[in-house]
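Holo prediction — flavin-adenine dinucleotide.
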Amino acid sequence: MLAVNAMHVMEDLLHMGDRLRSLGDTFKAINLYTKGSTTLDVIGGFIVEDKGVQALTIARPVLHRELLRQCEDMSDMIEIRYSAELESIKEDKEGCSAILKGGEVVRGEQFIPNRSLQANVVGDILVGADGIRSKARKHTLGENDIIPRYAGYFSIGCILSRSSANLPPDMTLPAFLYTPSGTFLIFAMDNTNDKIQWATSINTPERDRRHGWDELRASGEALQMLKEEYKGVTMEPIRTFVDALSNDNLRLWAPYEVPPIPTWHTDRVCIVGDAAHAISPSVGQGSAQAFEDIAFLARLLASPTAVAKGFPALFEYFEKVRRPRVKTIQAASAKAEGGRGKSGTIKWIIKSWGMWAGLNVFGKGGYIKGDLFSYNVMEEKIQM
Ligand SMILES: Cc1cc2nc3c(=O)[nH]c(=O)nc-3n(C[C@H](O)[C@H](O)[C@H](O)COP(=O)(O)OP(=O)(O)OC[C@H]3O[C@@H](n4cnc5c(N)ncnc54)[C@H](O)[C@@H]3O)c2cc1C
C-alpha cells in the first residue's frame, strides 16, 4: 500500500502519480469486515482519501521498476551501480567515500550543470537508505549499533486471481477481515482488479535469521501452522484461501523493526527509511515513512538557506522534524498490533462490537477519516 502520505510525495515531488495510478489500484477507504451470522458483515472503515488524492495498492516490483525508470531518465545526474555492496564508510572533514565489498573505494560525484558528472571527487555527504541491516547505520552509531527487533510474527499469504478467490460479491477492497483466529488483509494488486493478494499473520518465536525462516517455509511447517490456526473457520473467502494455499504458492515474510536509536546522522552521513526506523507493517507505513524522509531531506538539500547552515545542522534539523512524525506512526503501529492476532471468541466479540460502536457512533455511516495518513510532507514548513 502506498498510503495517501506516500502518494503526496509521488505527486508533488516525483510527479509519478498518474503513472502509478495507471498501474495500481486506487481506493478511498480501508473497509473492515467481521463474521456476521451467515456472512461477512462490513463494520465500517477508515476513509484515507485526502484533498482528492487517493491511496494505492501496487505490486512492489512494479513500484521498484517505476522508481528505477525515473532515475534512468535522469542518468545525466544519477549514476546507478548494480551489485555494489557497501562495506563501510570513510568520513573526515574533507568529505566521505563508500568502501565496497572487495575494497573498491567509491568517492563522490559532483554535478556540474551542462557538463554532467565529474567523478572521483570526495562526496560532501552520504545518504544511507540501505534498510534494516544498514551498514550506514553501523557507521552512524558505531559500537552503539542495534540489532533489529523481531516483530513477533510472520506474515503468510498468496497472490491469486479474483475469480478464484470466492470473494463475497459486495466486498470492497482493500478489506480487513476480523475472525477469532486472526485478521486477514485482502487487496487488489493492479488496476484490472484481476490479481488480488491476501495475507494474515501467525505469532511464533523468532527463527534463525534468513535460514530459519526459509526452513519454516520449505518444510511445510508454516503452512501447517496456518491450517491448524484456521481449521474451525468456515467463513468465505477465508476457507477457500486457507484450503487453496500450498507450499508452491505461499509467500512468507518475517517483519523486523528498528527501535528508536540515539541519532540518525553524523556530520556527513544521514540514514533514512528502514535503516533509521523500520516499522512493523501493521499500518502499512514503512515505505511511506521512507518516502516522507527522502522528500523532506531533498527539500532541505535544495534550500540554499538550509545548506548554508552546514550539513551537520541540516541533518540535525531533518531529524528534529522527522522523529516526532515517525514516533506517531510507530505508536499507531503498536496499537494496531494489539488487534491483529488470535483473540479467541469472547475477546473477538468484544473487539468487533467495540470497533462497530467506535466507527458507527463517531463516524458517518461507519466510516471515519484516518487523519494520520493525510499528512503532506511537501507542505511541512522549513524553519531553520
Ligand atoms: C510484509 C511486509 C509488508 C509491508 N507492507 C507495507 C505497505 O503496505 N506499505 C508500506 O508503506 N510499507 C510496507 N512495508 C514496509 C516497507 O517494505 C519498508 O518500510 C520499505 O521497504 C523501506 O524502504 P527502504 O528503502 O528504507 O529499505 P529497503 O526497502 O529495505 O531497501 C534497502 C535497499 O538497500 C539495499 N542494501 C542493503 N544493504 C546494502 C549494502 N550493504 N550495500 C548496498 N545496498 C544495500 C537492499 O538490497 C535494498 O535494495 C512492509 C514490510 C513488510 C515486511
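READOUT: The chain has a mean pLDDT of 88.
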